[in-house]
Write a structure and sequence with these properties.
Elements: H1 2-16, H2 18-22, H3 34-42, H4 49-61, H5 69-78, H6 96-107, H7 113-118, H8 122-131, H9 146-162
Length: about 170
């Protein structure tokens, strides 16, 4: 039974990353393949802000981009997904609060009464993402692992397709 659940979870994660994997090209001119990129993220102990920006943009555009970080962060800032005053570098460690804020902005999740009255912040965004089961557990300042980032991408993909994260593969 446990093996079936693990297999189902892997199938869901691979399905969510299908747009990334389907575009797999041989690494050339110093760029890594999409499969190598997903594997590198999966193996990270701590995901970076740059990883989250690429993941969120790939969710919005349904494709992975090899653009440099300044172009990606500029695009996300222009869409209102990343606050311009954060001043986070590409290598900054990603927290659950920051990831939740980005998700709420990207998915246009407006939240409950408190979020509507006081506006979105990292704490309320994390609560909203936990309520919708996009992010599992944790507190605002907790760092995100690469595996957790891929789990969130999987949950967001299922959420966008079905309107919730209840899936036969989870």
């Amino acid at each position: 039974m446990m093996m079936r659940l693990r297999t189902a979870a892997w199938v869901a994660m691979i399905a969510a990353c299908a747009p990334l994997l389907a575009q797999d090209k041989p690494a050339s001119a110093g760029k890594e393949s999409r499969t190598a990129y997903v594997r590198r993220i999966f193996e990270k102990d701590r995901a970076s802000f740059g990883d989250a920006c690429r993941a969120i943009l790939s969710i919005l555009k349904d494709e992975h981009t090899d653009a440099d970080f300044s172009a990606i962060s500029g695009d996300l800032s222009g869409r209102g997904i990343v606050s311009a005053d954060w001043n986070l570098q590409e290598t900054s460690l990603l927290t659950k609060g920051t990831l939740a804020y980005m998700l709420c902005q990207a998915l246009e999740l407006r939240g409950g009464l408190t979020m509507r009255l006081f506006g979105i912040n990292r704490r309320y965004a994390l609560r909203e993402c936990q309520q919708r089961r996009l992010i599992v557990g944790g507190v605002t300042e907790e760092y995100v692992t690469g595996r957790e980032l891929l789990d969130v991408i999987t949950n967001v993909t299922v959420h966008r397709e079905q309107g919730n994260v209840d899936s036969q593969f989870k």
